[in-house]
Specification:
Helix content is 34%, strand content 25%. With 250 residues, the chain is α/β, with parallel strands linked by helices. It has one domain: 3-Layer(aba) Sandwich (Rossmann fold), CATH 3.40.50.300. Helix 8 links the parallel strand 8 and strand 9. It is globular and about 50 Å long. The structure holds adenosine-5'-triphosphate. GO terms for molecular function: ATP binding; ATP hydrolysis activity; branched-chain amino acid transmembrane transporter activity. Belongs to the ABC transporter superfamily. It holds the Pfam family ABC_tran.
């Protein structure tokens, strides 16, 4: 069964930060996304749910043009991303925290945090190096260490911190708490809440449904590259069969 909640009429007038319409993405002959639709408004937190292999990472990579869709349309801030390169989209205010973190050997924590730093499109830099280090005191303690020698949790913080130094309007987090110890995971969720409170929109892929239900304003649930639910946490809680059937959450 598909359950798609319509946006509130008052929201319809706002230009979405991200608008995805009828996305079809392939790897060679393998047809992975089958007509994905999703909308993210400025400042919103959206979770992308689904079991392994359902197309969450591919959706993120299609939005960012790493894996361009074969059909369908992606718009960022009202502009079509067709023919645009990932780095151009990142410059439009998207911070990407990829699965696997993307930390480079031979580059210090400080260098990771200054190499991508830049003001936002409005020329403002609310996320200075100092603010990032205040948010992640562990990074301050390891400031001259080689990024690749940090613990998994510290690397994750560095990956998020680096994305914040680009002063994004949207941050995309793919499995940011995967494989981390519970206490470190809690720290990452605390940071995600702080990011939300600071007004940055986010798209989050994560396995921790309880945290997602608490933090995310809306959820999009994928099954085999199709959206089977789109709505808020209340809608999802009111339909436990959705979580049970498609995520195995009892
Ligand atoms: N580079 C690739 N080449 C071919 N097929 C791929 C590639 N990357 C992913 N796939 C396939 O595309 C489908 C969707 O994968 P995707 O990584 O988007 O799923 P996911 O929901 O993010 O799951 P996971 O949590 O396992 O990453 C899967 O069947 C996967 O095997």
């Amino acid at each position: 069964m598909t359950a798609i909640q319509q946006p509130h009429p008052a929201q319809a007038a706002v230009t979405p930060l991200v608008e995805v319409r009828g996305l079809h993405t392939y790897y060679g002959e393998s047809h992975v996304l089958h007509g994905i639709d999703l909308t993210l408004l400025p400042g919103e937190t959206l979770s992308l749910l689904g079991r392994n292999g359902m197309g969450k990472t591919t959706t993120l990579k299609s939005i960012l043009a790493f894996v361009p869709p074969r059909r369908g349309e992606v718009s960022i801030k009202g502009q079509s991303t067709a023919k645009r390169r990932p780095w151009q989209l990142v410059r439009q205010g998207i911070g990407y925290v990829p699965e696997g973190r993307g930390i480079f050997p031979g580059i210090s924590v400080r260098e990771h945090l200054i190499m991508a730093a830049r003001p936002n499109e409005r020329g403002q830099s609310p996320w200075t190096l100092e603010r990032v280090l205040d948010t992640f005191p562990r990074l301050g303690q390891r400031i001259h260490h080689d990024g690749s020698l940090l613990s998994g949790g510290e690397q994750q913080m560095l990956s998020i911190g680096r994305a914040l130094t680009t002063n994004p309007d949207l941050i995309i987090l793919d499995e940011a708490t995967e494989g981390l110890a519970p206490l470190i995971r809690d720290e990452i969720w605390k940071i995600i809440r702080e990011i939300k409170a600071s007004g940055i929109a986010s798209i989050i892929v994560d396995k921790n449904i309880d945290n997602l239900l608490e933090v995310a304003d809306r959820h999009v649930l994928l099954v085999k590259g199709e959206v089977v639910f789109s709505g808020d946490s209340r809608g999802l809680r009111e339909d436990p069969s959705m979580l049970e059937t498609h995520l195995g959450v009892a």
